[in-house]
């Protein structure tokens, strides 16, 4: 048993270690200092509990921990996974126009709540709300921080006192991910869940039988990230709407991704429901995310009957989840872009849509160019392969988009090591390891990032 007093002498000096690490790591010195102090304290406790690391080992451990911590700082990433709306990589990237306006607004003052013609206090998000309503063909619309907030607000507004029952089909009690489960969202909103039908079958009578004087609303939830098939049945939305309205109840739908256009016209993939169609079908209020297929900033959009939207905006909780000027700016730019191109089709600079519809031959050409730019000995370890891209982000789980990847079989290092090096290099690159190879799917890589791929690969070899 080593003497703890002797072992404690192995602890490195905070000052020296901080000095060395500050040279290696571009983090603020004060942050490195507190990090090192905490880590040394941890090692002290471990030594007192019997651990026997040498000073070199302790220094190496703290250096590794700091590198891992530094890598957790938000930074740009090249997404070579082929998953277009990648939740872990920040969902939808913004288009150039939105990013440019964002800089202008962010670095100065703006008319957030100011009426320029008369110089008086103005209405926040007034322009955006009108533009949204126009695009969505809705009586009224507004935006909050995310779709989860939009749904909670809607439930809080419509479920009052004893009249708080929300009817939902058992086939729609979904978990979206990141802790978003419909039954739990209902519960935290003060609503009482009334499940109807079975997992695979729900009919109109199931809904009708569940209506009582305590019913507040009927809720439909889009099965964003899974699908059911086989012996299934569900009533037409228009029939549910008729039933709801005959009973004086609102019908609300959480449609999740909120595609503005027919996704099946962009690529050979599923048709994702649009809010416009939902409203035409008789839904009174729809909510959806702004940063999925819409390709905007993180936000939750609520659209539908004027009286309902106005009521929601008067909820005290609305204030807690309202959008800030940066989000409003980006969303405004995004919605204007859709409106400007409403009749034209196409993808008009929304990256998520461009990635979905990109021609596979263009991807193949880019792959050839990238490989041709590599040195000979590296080139022989790369091949062009057919891959499968996905929309991701809990949208269209069945859709597979044919894509092209550069597949690398490394020679002197393991494939996992290669993947780690690319993830932790100067510009982080995230690919997919499969079958002993590292695949870099080009469908989610911006054109202008091809040279960074080449540079990173050369750097590693
Ligand atoms: C993604 C999704 C949500 C959550 O949206 P956030 O904007 O992440 O809060 C809610 N409902 C459905 C159906 C979804 O697909």
Explained architecture:
The model has no long low-confidence stretch (mean pLDDT 94). It is built from 20 helices and 17 strands. The longest helix has 20 residues, at 29-48. Helices cover 42% and strands 17% of the residues. It has helices at 4-8, 14-24, 29-48, 55-71, 96-106, 126-136, 147-158, 182-188, 204-210, 237-246, 263-266, 275-280, 306-314, 316-320, 325-340, 351-357, 360-372, 376-379, 415-423, 450-460; strands at 77-79, 114-115, 120-121, 140-144, 165-169, 175-177, 180-181, 192-196, 215-221, 251-256, 285-289, 300-304, 382-389, 401-408, 428-430, 432-434, 437-441. It is globular, with a radius of gyration of 27 Å. With 461 residues, it is of the alpha/beta class. The strands form five sheets. A seven-stranded mixed sheet has the order 4-12-11-10-9-5-8, with helices on both faces. The chain binds pyridoxal-5'-phosphate (PLP). Pyridoxal-5'-phosphate is lined by residues 146-148, 176, 180, 221-222, 224, 254, 256-257, 289, 300, 394.
List the topology elements.
Layout: H1 4-8, H2 14-24, H3 29-48, H4 55-71, E1 77-79, H5 96-106, E2 114-115, E3 120-121, H6 126-136, E4 140-144, H7 147-158, E5 165-169, E6 175-177, E7 180-181, H8 182-188, E8 192-196, H9 204-210, E9 215-221, H10 237-246, E10 251-256, H11 263-266, H12 275-280, E11 285-289, E12 300-304, H13 306-314, H14 316-320, H15 325-340, H16 351-357, H17 360-372, H18 376-379, E13 382-389, E14 401-408, H19 415-423, E15 428-430, E16 432-434, E17 437-441, H20 450-460
Parallel strand pairs: 1-15, 5-8, 5-9, 9-10, 10-11
Antiparallel strand pairs: 2-3, 4-12, 6-7, 11-12, 13-14, 14-17, 16-17
Helix pairs in contact: 2-3, 5-15, 6-15
The structure holds pyridoxal-5'-phosphate.
């Amino acid at each position: 048993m080593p003497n703890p007093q002797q072992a404690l002498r192995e602890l490195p000096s905070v000052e020296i270690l901080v000095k060395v690490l500050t040279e290696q790591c571009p983090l603020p010195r004060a942050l490195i200092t507190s990090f090192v102090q905490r880590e040394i304290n941890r090692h002290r406790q471990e030594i007192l509990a019997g651990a026997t690391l040498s000073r070199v080992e302790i220094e190496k451990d703290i250096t590794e921990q700091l590198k891992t911590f530094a890598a957790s700082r938000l930074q740009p990433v090249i997404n070579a996974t082929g998953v277009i709306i990648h939740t872990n990589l920040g969902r939808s990237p913004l288009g150039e126009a939105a990013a440019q306006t964002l800089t202008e607004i962010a670095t100065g003052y703006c008319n957030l709540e100011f009426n320029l013609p008369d110089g008086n206090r103005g209405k926040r998000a007034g322009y955006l709300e009108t533009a949204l309503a126009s695009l969505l063909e809705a009586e009224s619309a507004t935006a909050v921080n995310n779709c989860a907030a939009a749904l909670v607000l809607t439930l809080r507004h419509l479920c009052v006192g004893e009249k708080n029952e929300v009817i939902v089909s058992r086939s729609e009690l979904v978990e979206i991910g990141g802790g978003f489960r419909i039954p739990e969202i209902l519960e935290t909103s003060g609503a009482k869940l009334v499940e109807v039908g079975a997992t695979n079958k729900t009919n109109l009578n199931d809904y009708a039988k569940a209506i009582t004087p305590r019913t507040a609303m009927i809720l439909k939830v889009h099965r964003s990230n899974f699908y059911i098939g086989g012996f299934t049945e569900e009533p037409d939305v228009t029939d549910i709407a008729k039933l709801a309205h005959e009973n004086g109840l609102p019908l609300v739908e959480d449609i999740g991704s909120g595609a503005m256009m027919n996704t099946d016209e962009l690529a050979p993939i599923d048709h994702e429901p649009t809010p416009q169609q939902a409203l035409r079908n008789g839904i009174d209020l729809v909510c959806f995310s702004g940063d999925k297929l819409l390709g905007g900033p993180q936000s939750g959009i609520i659209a539908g009957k004027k009286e309902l939207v106005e009521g929601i905006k008067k909820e005290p909780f609305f204030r807690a989840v309202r959008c800030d000027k940066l989000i409003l700016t980006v969303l405004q730019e995004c919605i204007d872009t859709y409106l400007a191109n409403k009749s034209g089709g196409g993808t008009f600079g929304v990256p998520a849509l461009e990635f979905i519809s990109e021609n596979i031959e263009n991807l193949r050409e880019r792959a050839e160019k990238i490989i041709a730019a590599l040195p000979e000995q590296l080139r022989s370890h790369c091949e062009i392969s057919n891959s499968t891209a996905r929309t991701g982000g809990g949208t269209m789980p069945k859709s597979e988009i044919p894509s092209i990847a550069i597949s690398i079989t490394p020679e002197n290092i393991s494939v996992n090591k290669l993947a780690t090096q690319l993830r932790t290099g100067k510009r982080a690159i995230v690919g997919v390891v499969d079958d002993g190879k590292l695949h870099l799917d080009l469908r989610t890589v911006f054109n202008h990032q091809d040279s960074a791929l080449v540079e990173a690969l050369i750097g590693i070899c």
